[in-house]
Write a structure and sequence with these properties.
The complex is a heterodimer.
Chain A (H helix, E strand, L loop, with lengths): L20 H6 L4 H7 L3 H11 L11 H6 L9 E6 L8 H8 L1 H15 L3 E6 L4 H16 L15 E6 L9 H8 L23 E5 H13 L1 H5 L9 E8 L5 E6 L4 H8 L9 E5 L8 E2 H4 L6 H6 L8 E6 L4 H15 L5 H18 L5 H12 L9 H15 L1 H15 L6
Chain B lengths: L8 H13 L7 H12 L4 H11 L3 H10 L11 E6 L2 H5 L2 H11 L13 E6 L11 E3 L2 E3 L4 H10 L4
Parallel strand pairs in B: 1-2
Antiparallel strand pairs in B: 1-3, 3-4
Classes of the chains: A alpha/beta, B alpha+beta.
Chain lengths: 428, 161
Amino acid sequence: MSSLEVKLLSEHYDKPEFQGLEGYKKHGGYEVLVKALKMEPQKIIDEVKASGLRGRGGAGFPTGVKWGFLPNNDEPRYLLCNADEGEPGTFKDRVMMERAPHQLIEGMIISAFAVKSHKSYIYIRGEYDEPARILRKALDEAYEAGLLGKNILGSGFDHDMDLYRGAGAYICGEETGMISSLEGLKGQPKLKPPFPAIQGYLKKPTIVNNVETLAAVKYIIRDGADAYRKYGTEKSAGTKLFSISGNVVKPGTYEVPLGISLKDLIFDVCGGLKPGRKLKAVIPGGSSAPILTAEESLKVNMDYESLAQSGSMLGSGAVIVIDDSNDMVDLLDVTLHFYHHESCGQCTPCREGTGWISKITHSIKNGEGTTKDIDLIKNVAEHMMGKTICALSDAAAMPAISFVTKFRDEFEAYVNKGVERRGEDAHA
Amino acid sequence: MSKAFELSKEGAELVKKELTRYETKHSAIIPALYQVQKENGWVPPESIEYLAGLMGLPESHINEVFSFYTMFNKVPTGKLHVQVCTNISCSMNGGRELAKKLCERFNVKPGEVSKDGLVTISQVECLGSCDTAPMMQVNDRYIENLDFEKAVQALKEMGAQ
Ligand SMILES: Cc1cc2nc3c(=O)[nH]c(=O)nc-3n(C[C@H](O)[C@H](O)[C@H](O)COP(=O)(O)O)c2cc1C
Ligand code: SF4
Ligand code: FES
């Protein structure tokens, strides 16, 4: 294990017993819940605010602030855990749910108590059959032990939690798409505002948080906001579980403090590249995050600010490491095919735009593109941004623009090869 | 005329229970479609009409939900539904070649059922197991860190010829 790793949430992930209630309890499981249930709910929200915890699902919105948006009344409200995990490159939620289902459940009960919610759902992607089975079992155990249901541990607080299984649609990871799906509709996103905290599931105030966000709440309440803040940077507090894949020697899920350098993450924590290979590029936050060149990658730190400054984003913390054996036109083609396939079709710029840029990229790869087509990808992508109901359109546009801008020579090489073959002028 | 479809008695009971499990009846549609697929291998058009009757929901609405989600098979699949991930990290590690070679090995085109009815191979998007690329999902099971030989071996163990 690299000395740069920090095992806060993942301390016991290597112990199989941590999956069951008994083993979980042996390692302090549900002790924080006991503590939380004796606190003022508002005090928990304040502590989460003070910790600086930001949403780990992609947008990085401050969790305590989001909770504070809930109306201050006794209206029923829901807590939804986003376990849809569909952003290509991301797999840390699956690891968390498989290794430590009770950690998520405990984090959720504490969070529900803080926001005064009596009903929560874990919305899990349909393909996650194994994690769903593990969670189902953990929920049964929790009910049996009086950790869920009426009058939890004699506190007077009631809370029911259920698991809902999606059925294969990336867009259901977007919070309003997820709400539609849970309501038994097509999983299409809805226009915001109103934000879910005001009007969400069944038009009731609803908090949507990622698996990792809700699990982290437990540790903030256990150790206090100040202790949590010891990890990370001023504006990007705490630890983060990164999903690292692609061309590294040791791909996997690693917990490190936010702010670690990407260079250390790749070359120290993940054992570097395969022998003889050179770093070409890194996608630092899931396939929708703008790509970084090798040079940019070696300068950036893995926190929200540093990545934003470099023109990319932390996203879901999915780091895809790309060595010099890869073809960037091909990788963009794969990426755009995905976003086009997953567009729900409600908004014209997204529906048409994803189709268009995906088709052009594909034709360039097939040696049928022109120089103008390279510019066209960029132009179309620019017009896809900031105009749609949800951010999927931007999620497709960002890789398109960054790949074409930063690796233009590779796109041109394809065009030129095609021109040579056809013996015609690319500018015609 | 489409032939009639019915769930098993237990299946129908299960769907009825789902109807009251959530805040709205509509939320039972996805679980009901899963039940149809579990019993039948895929979701035939006539099952939608059947569910509408069983659940007391409009057929058009069930159809809308059914068509939106990719995990509901719109056509029959082989006994082993082999879904090879060809998204970015798997493609970088040979996912597409694997899918292609498996199609050749079992003599099927993507999405087709093999003549013996045992195998369907499709290419799917990221399955959330990118650190074990390339990988595939066979029915409900993830099979990871693959190469061609290992994939064929696993499929044979599951009954493929
Ligand atoms: C197209 C799209 C897909 C998304 N997919 C996920 C996802 O799979 N998991 C997730 O937690 N958040 C996802 N999000 C972000 C959610 O909309 C939402 O911001 C998040 O669940 C809030 O939780 P957090 O504040 O704890 O991050 C997605 C957003 C978009 C636009
Ligand atoms: S941006 Fe795309 S995915 Fe999002 S709502 Fe519009 S069409 Fe659907
Ligand atoms: S890219 Fe294949 S599992 Fe994620």
